[in-house]
Amino acid sequence: MLVNRTLVFLNVIACCALISLTAKFVIWPPVAKMVFKDNYQELMFQCDNVMREHLIAKTRVMTEKSEQSLLQLDAAEMGLVTCHDYDVLRKKMRQAGISAHELSLMGLEVIEAKAKNLYEFVDIHEIKY
Amino acid sequence: MSLLISMKSNTNRLRSFAVILLCVTLSYKTYGVERAELIRNAVLSNGFVVSQELYDDTDSHLATVGKAFFESEHLSLNGQIACSTCHINHAGSSDGIPNAAGVRGIGESLERLRSGAKIVPRNTLGLWGVGALAHKTFFWDGKLIAQDSGVLSQFGTRPPSEDPLVTAVHLPAVEIRETLEEDAFVKANKSESVDGVDLVYAAILDNLREYEPDAVEEIASTFEIESSDLSFLHVARSVAAFIRSEFRIKTTRLEDFALGKTELTPSELLGAEIFYGKGGCAVCHRGPLFSDQKFHTVPVPPLGFGKNGFGADYGRFNTSFDPGDLYKFRTPILYNVAKTAPYGHGGSMRTLREAIDSHVDPLGLVDLTSLDGFGRHEYSKVLAASDMVGSVQFISSEEIADLIDFLNTLSF
């Protein structure tokens, strides 16, 4: 009787473990990808933007140091806060089981989103030589 | 008697009319001659050089060997793409599409773009005049410049050659997405040091020994060395010799006009007046190659995802990191410009008329409603940075047609 109960108990634990592991490694990653993808791509775009502006502001101070350029650099540094949000979400998505490769692909998708314009351009204008 | 008087006065009238007509015609011809001389002087005083004097002698045998490498897909380590894939002779030495189609494509030009090739977000530059003595600034963003002190490039203090064209030939071979796939070998050796690319060049040469044995033997015998002693530099020198020979500037109608061998048509003369006058074209399109080899901002319509992604392209800034260089690109060479459509660093202008309009009436080319917020934001910054203020005056549609007629005199 005790053995049976123990076995049932262990079975229940095993089933719960199996269900949890399936949820964590099989079900949750694609669901998380669907849930977070748009936000991730938007934050990636925003972070890329602020980083580029920060680089420009930094180089501007190097080439033409003035009160204006220093103020612009301060503002650009403040703007980098956006990248903190991007970083946090990225870590969250990695914890959810989404691979670094998948995250890179999502990033590339948004970086090159305007490639669509290129295909439309050549289709509409029938570029030929 | 009255009839006789009437006839006599009619004859006098006719005679007077003929004299006036003759004077007008003579004065027009004189004015036409003066105009042609004015243009001729403008051509010569803006740095024109006859085609024969643009080059040193080229080693024709080396050029022949270089042709084989120029057309070989094995000059790309793993991308199965040749120089001639994008630099197509019958497409004006470019490829006829807005952005270049790099690795993972099949075929060339439009077919290659549609086959899923990796997009290189810049318009393929034509090779006309690239090997000329006066050609100092390479690529849209000047990532290679020949200065008196030496070649300035990503190779830093170790350029493979003091010949800028030979060094330039080295660059596409190690450009990921352009001719290089990022496979395990490339990833392992991907760095920002020259040592890393040396490994890639060595691997390319091993490839050439295996797949282009005849060309390798030929070049080894040209340099009088064993094929095992060959380096990528030898290959690059042969490709450079081929480019100098194949894409050499030839005699044009403008040259014949400048030397007094022919005359331009009235519309070509009018176009030349605009080019050297109120159009302000010669402010930047000057010198032996009709390019000042410097960097300027022209507010061309945006197309594609751009070098910086999301539709942005910072141009020369990506190389110099000088904020003053934001959105600047090298002045294109105008020889054979009529053959190298589409135009602009992103290839967003299909015709010469649109290319001219981007200088004169840029807002007429862009459908602002088709841009998203970031696209309009970027375009407004390009407009603000434009170099057209103070140099380009307004010209009409008819004047643009004359200007195009003039630019056609640079074709060969």
Explain the overall architecture.
Helix content of chain A is 88%, strand content 0%. Chain A has helices spanning 2-63, 67-79, 81-95, 100-111, 115-125. The longest helix of chain A has 62 residues, at 2-63. Chain A starts with a helix and ends with a helix. In chain B, 43% of the residues lie in helices and 4% in strands. In chain B, the strands form three sheets. A three-stranded antiparallel β-sheet of chain B has the order 3-4-5, covered by helices on one side. In chain B, helix 7 (194-211) packs across helix 8 (213-222) and helix 11 packs across helix 15. The longest helix of chain B is centred in the first third of the chain and has 44 residues, at 2-45. The radius of gyration of chain B is 26 Å and the shape is globular. The chains are: A mainly alpha (129), B mainly alpha (412). Chain A binds chain B through residues 45, 48-49, 52, 55-56, 59-60, 63-64, 110-115, 117-119, 121-122, 125, 127-129, and chain B through 88, 90-92, 95-99, 109-110, 113-114, 119, 302-306, 308-312, 314, 317, 321-324, 326, 341-342, 348, 350, 374-375.
